């Protein structure tokens, strides 16, 4: 796991978490192979389908849990392992871990709902404004510019520092008990959200079914949060996203087909 200085070492207890990550990626691949990637994406929630809107929303949230498990848990493994070790001495360590993880997923689920609402607002705007509807690349390019610019923000760096130093984080905020574990999970989830919300927002341009984009973002976030090379990668990714977004705004041919439905 990652220490306070960003070095990656191994500690016991990560096998179960990595099994969950592997299962999430396997399920995401299965959905794609079976042709259900589009059904569980946010696009399916925002248009009429053969399923009621509540069912499509529920499917979207289930798919988002899979995405969170596949993409975010690898970079949170150091925190989860340290929390598991710190909680061994309390009365109900397994309940505490469940509360911690549930709170973490709840934070990211809240982000998904907010992002979905914003995406729905953009769809309504495009419907009411034909000029924008005819130029979907403007939205996709703007999302990439936003994500690129956020890579250079002080908020991103502050949240990354908290995520890169799980020992310091637990030293400041850890407390015993299940309610305290929930609060700690929410706090860690918010710092993680602060690191990665803009990168994850690009998933709303690509959709749940793009495993290539999921894998690329997972690798970026894992290195940014757990590797000594993370500080070098952050501005490189920011520059690449800014360049890509600018190229899309200048000419729609730079917009991949997977992004055209955003």
**What share of the residues does DSSP label as strand, in percent?**
under 5%
- Biggest sheet architecture: none
Unreliably modeled segments:
1-13, 258-262
Q: Which structural class fits the helix and strand makeup? A: mainly alpha
Which sequence of SSEs, written as H and E, runs from N to C? HHHHHHHHHHHHH
> How many helix segments?
13
What's the number of structural domains?
1
Using only CA atoms, what is the Rg? 19 Å
Q: Kindly, what is the distance between the CA atoms of the first and last residues, rounded to a whole number of angstroms?
A: 36 Å
- Helical content stands at over 70%
Mean pLDDT: 81
Query: What oligomeric assembly is this protein in?
Result: single chain
Shape by Cα distribution: globular
Q: What does this protein look like?
A:
This protein is mostly helical. The protein has one domain (15-259). Helix content is 74%, strand content 0%. The chain contains 13 helices and no strands. It has helices at 15-33, 42-45, 53-71, 73-86, 93-128, 130-133, 137-150, 154-164, 166-173, 178-201, 203-206, 211-226, 230-250. The chain is globular, with a radius of gyration of 19 Å.
List keywords for this structure.
disordered N terminus; disordered C terminus; 262 residues; 0% strand; mainly alpha; 74% helix
State the gist of this model:
This protein has 13 helices and no strands. By secondary structure, it is mainly α.
List the helices and strands and how they pair.
Layout: H1 15-33, H2 42-45, H3 53-71, H4 73-86, H5 93-128, H6 130-133, H7 137-150, H8 154-164, H9 166-173, H10 178-201, H11 203-206, H12 211-226, H13 230-250
Helix pairs in contact: 1-3, 3-5, 4-12, 5-10, 7-10, 7-13, 8-10, 12-13
